[in-house]
Every structure is written in C-alpha cells, then in structure tokens.
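Box S1 | Example of a co-folding query
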Amino acid sequence: MEELDHNSVEEPRKRNFLEEIIEADLASGKVDSVMTRFPPEPNGYLHLGHAKSICLNFGLARQYGGKTNLRYDDTNPVKEDVEYVDAIKEDIQWLGFQWDKELYASDYFDQLYEWAEDLIRKGLAYVDDQTQEEIRLGRGTVDRPGTPSPYRDRSVEENLRLFREMKAGKYADGEKVLRAKIDMAHPNMMFRDPLLYRIKHASHHRTGDKWCIYPMYDFTHGQCDSIEHITHSICTLEFDVHRPLYDWFIEKLGIWPSHQYEFARLNLTYTLMSKRKLLELVQKGLVSGWDDPRMPTLCGVRRRGYTPEALKMFCEKIGVSKRDQLMDIQLLEWCVRQDLNARSNRYMVVQDPVKVTLTNWEPGKVEWFDCPLNPADPEGASRKVPFTGELLIERADFMEDAPKKFFRLKPGGEVRLKYTYIIKCEEVIKDADGKVVELKCTYDPTTRPGAGEWRSVKGTIHWVSTAYAQAVELRLYDRLFTLADMSAVPEDKDYKDFLNPASLVVTTGYAEPALLEDASGIAVQFERTGYFVKDKDSQPGKAVFNKTASLKDSYKPE
Ligand code: ATP
Ligand code: MG
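Box S1 (continued) | Returned holo structure for magnesium ion
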C-alpha cells in the first residue's frame, strides 16, 4: 500500500482515465451511448467503498448522458438476503442516484444454463467428479503447471447428461462441478479450467428451490453485462486477472462484447471495509448494528450525520486511480465539515456546565434574542434564544489562574456571551472540595448588540439559560479502530484487537430550547463545539444527538 495520497485533491482536476476511455469510445463510435451497472452482492450493507463505486458508475453515466443498472450479484444463495436487497436500494437513493433497471443475476439463470450447455457442446466445458481439494491441488501453482482432471476428456454426450442430472438434483453438494476446458498450464491461473457451476441445495431468495446448481462469479458477471449491453463494466483492481476470462466467455459464446475496466478500491485509514468483518462486528455485538454511527456503512455514516453531498465531494476529491491507495479518513471528515459549515443550523449547547449568576439582572426577567440560524446567511431564518439571570457556561471557558493569553472568563475579567451582553466575573464560589460551582457576575446593559456603540472584548463564549435549558443525551464518537492501516494487522493479532475502547462516550448536554424544534433534517452545529445530528433513539422528552464531527481540525487537504 502506498503512502497517504493527497495528490488527487487539486482543483480543477484533469479527466480521469475512465473519462478518457469513455470519451475515446464515444468519439470513435465504438459505443454510441454509455451503459454502466452497479453490481452489489446482497450479502451485507453498503460501505464507503461502495459509495466510490456508485459515484463512479452512476456519475459517469450521468456525465455522458447514459444509464446505470442496479444489478444484484445474487449467485450465492447461502449468504444473501432480501434485508440487504432493500437496504442497498435505500442507500443508493440516499446518495442521490437512480438506476435505470433493477436486475438480478438470478434473472439470467436460465440463459446462463443454456450457455453452459453451449460450451459443453463446443467441447469447452466438462463435468468434474473430483473433490474441491483435488481440484485445488490439480491447479498447480504459478510456476508449476496443473494436472488435468481424470474426467477432463468425457464425451459431449456424457457431459450433457451429467450436467442435466446435476441440475435435476441427482447429486449432493460438492459431488460434481462443471468446469471450462481451457488450459491447465496457462500462466494465468484463472484459465486452468475454472469452475462454472457448483451444486448447492439451498433456497435462493428469488428463485426459491428451482435451482440446486449455481453459476460462479466468472461465468456470471460478464454474461450479465453482455445481456444488458453494459458498455463499461467498472470494477476494482483485484479483478484485472479475471478480465481475460471475462473476454474469453464473451468470445466463445459469441455474445455482445461488454468490456471490463479496473480502478483502485478505496481504503481508508482507521477503517475496515470488508463486509465479512463488518458482519462479524454486528453479530458479536461489538457495535450496535449495521447502522452504528461508528460503522463505515452508508447507513452508519448517515446516522452519524454525514451527508450525501459530503460523500460525493470526497469521492470527487480522491479521484480514480489505478494503484491501490490508503486515503486519509481526515479528508472525508474535512468534506463533512465543509458541507455542514455551509448549511447547518447553529445552536448553543453546554456540555460540562458551570453556573453563572448575574447579580444585577432583574429577578425573573427573560429577554429573547433573535439569533441567526446560520451566520453565513444573516438575512436568513433565525431562532429565539432566552436570556435570564442564571446561565450555564462551559467549565473550560472559565479559568481561575488564567495565563495572559486566556481570553475567556477569569476572575475580574470580561467576556461576551454570544449574541448578548458582556459579563464580568466578580466572585468565584467553590464547594468543600475546591471545585468551582458558581460564578457571580455582572452584566453590562450597554453592551447589548444593536444598542448604542459596540464595545468589544477578546473572548466570546456560548451559554444557555438554566431555566430554559433542555437536557439532551450526547453520544460522542471517535474512530472505531486505533490502527491507521487496517490492512497491516500483525499476523499474531486480530483486527478486533484494535478496537478503540473510547469510540463511544455518552454524556449530557444542556441545549437552548430551539434545538429541539430544528426541522432542517441534517446535522446542526453546536456553536464552538462540533456538528451533531439527532438520532432515531430520541424519545419525546429525551432527545439523543450523535456527534458527527468536531468543529475544527488542524487537518487541511493538499
Ligand atoms: P467486500 O469485500 O466489502 O465484501 P465486495 O467487493 O465483495 O466488497 P460487492 O457487493 O461485490 O462487494 O461490491 C459491489 C461493487 O462495489 C463491486 O463493483 C465492487 O468492486 C465495488 N466495491 C466494493 N468495495 C469497494 C471499495 N472498497 N472501493 C471501491 N469499490 C468497491
Ligand atoms: Mg463481491
């Protein structure tokens, strides 16, 4: 894996290699329109890596006036489920894309079966009775040719009969397979008589018990592409060794020539994106579910408050590469902040409060301040914030023995309470243990914004009125893993050894009342702290907010 790669974030960007290929194909007349597909296996929820594939497949088609099919690669009945089928659709639409046709590899089982018989008739496929282990050993190695199966030279008639019997359910799982007859000494291992069909007596989520033989990936994918006239079949790099086989089937079957192109899969620091491992985290209860806000799944980051806009910005910035890369998760977080900073509503929430009492405030008086929901849009909507004589501020915004450069509240010092008055700390009240429990302050009525001349002080802090504060549950999330490159888990360790024990901290926040009325539908900014989004666990009277991202970070892309 390469070093962290930020080279691809410059703007305006060059065309990527896929765009170059497509433009050349359109210009030469090799294709007259662009047809792509997104081919998830419905055996888990989509993750950030899939988002990149979705942005590419749907994005390229959109860019060149083409279409994209959603095609479920559902050839393994044992691991697949309709729960995943539905979740995948929801996630694609959430990202803002719409497929042309919703299709399933299983829609083509009859056609694929016909093509398998066609290969048998052409002498290009045979039924093998060897065990899985014998087949594996017979393949040889990269520097040693394989050994032909003793069943390799069966007659066409015998092969047809056996294959039909396989289909009819005469044999048990693993008893026989159908293999292509190509070259047991081929330098590309893929060509050493690859498996085409295996027996699996299992119910399929769509075809039920109609089939007990199922086609292998290599015998399925290219043919499905061909049936749908996919012009550019984009997949991840590890499939480049499959490409010649993809082409071989198309050639031998004499069908419409789809082509496959590979790009580097997305890997992110501190992140795992293997569905198998994500499933294990869910099943072992190490996270609360597929949509745990710490998960890299699309439903997880959605619950975390990441927006489709931020994900698309990220995919655009990382670009498309032909070499594997480990991208910095901070770039994604940066995109999230960029997007939310521009459009999220602002509210004040105090997380670790200390009480402020205004000794010169008229008892019982409430003053409502009109505060912009987004300061970038001062003419836009506002919210009303109540100000009273007893307030809460952040404990960290007060310091008793403050250094000179501390511009927030200190004994005898002044600070502005955001949107409102300047206050001065007159007295510090502590409990028996010496912990500060109350700050007696005075406010300067002449410093109300808009009332007379503006007097400025160096510090401005957020606050809430005690009488109006709403307690909300805050779920503070951090990275799920502590290892930056999760592909480098040492051999004597397990990836679960790198789970971050502090990835979730639950605390209480005290919010201005308008927060609970927010109807923006996206994450909001808790002023001076971070972005938070309301969670589905919220109940009437008990709102729950997930931390989406901190407000600032030293990270800058480039
Ligand atoms: P996983 O290894 O997480 O199980 P997969 O490749 O088996 O992923 P599929 O459902 O087969 O998952 O993937 C659907 C599409 O998404 C494929 O075209 C695949 O290449 C692409 N894809 C999967 N993971 C990534 C990734 N990390 N980056 C880019 N594309 C990906
Ligand atoms: Mg797969």
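The two ends are 19 Å apart (CA to CA). The first helix runs from residue 17 to 28.
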